[in-house]
Amino acid sequence: MRQENLTTIKGGLNRLRTKGAALKDSLFELLNGFVTTERTVKVRPGTLLDTTLPSGTFGLFSFEGLLQVFASSVIGGIPAGYNLNILNAPTGNALSKVHFAEPFMGLLYVVAEFDADEIFHFWLRTGEDWKANEIHKETDKVIPTSPDGFVYSAKRIGDANPLWTPSVPRAVGDKVEPTTENGFFFECTAVFGTAPLSGFIEPAWDDATAAQLFVDTQDGTPEQDIPKPPDPPRDNRVPGIKKKRYGRK
Fold it and tell me: Which residue of 66, 115, 181, 230 could cross-link 93, Cys pair, CB 3.0 to 4.6 Å?
């Protein structure tokens, strides 16, 4: 059979038989291709096999620059460019199918089916990889180095310290927290004067670890003087004596 290269055609498929040779500007049959609006023939786009994923993974969805796959336990051999998401069923059953996966409010929303025909909905949280000797503030989220399907959130241990308040007595050992939370508390290590008080204005808290902060006091030796309010305007007029507009009595 002789091969003919098509560049343009008059229309789509033409099943009408004609005498003589086949027409060079029409198609009798087309496989894995399509005719464009410009009447050219294009190969239909398809996908190529990139890799073979390990057994036990389900679903495939592109999100945040990676191809997302799902499983109910840690599975080794996940190739580069793929991210394994572990879905834990409340009943402990194994994952059998992923019905739906789409981004929702910046996170991946997944509907998955498990053994015993159980279907659960997941909204997958994200977090930073756990690191040793790392400072974490409340609500920071971390992921274990060996993922287990959970994200761990930092929580406060113990009760909160009092918030900073102006003009209250201060003593060594007092602990306060800024009125606008920054993840740190501050402890009074030294005071000045016989009756030390907190200042009028809340200081600019330093959020560095082990930072020292000097604040103004109302009685003692402050680092900086507290600005005093201006004196009220003086009235030079003598009570009981009124002056006319032009200064005549």
Answer: 115
CA distance 95 to 113: 6
Say if residues 217 and 199 touch (Cβ distance below 8 Å).
yes
Say if residues 140 and 129 touch (Cβ distance below 8 Å): no
Interacting residues of 2 by C-beta distance below 8 A, sequence separation 6+: none
Does the global pTM surpass 0.90?
no
Instruction: Tell me 19's DSSP state.
Output: S
Query: Pairing relation of β-strands 66-71 and 141-143?
Result: unpaired
Between vectors from CA 95 to CA 89 and to CA 99, what angle results, nearest 5°? 100
- Please say if the pLDDT value at position 70 is more than 90: yes
> Using the 8-state DSSP alphabet, how is residue 224 labeled?
S
Query: Which residues are bridge partners to 186 per DSSP?
Result: 176
Going by C-alpha positions, the residue among 170, 122, 181, 109 that lies closest to residue 150 is 122
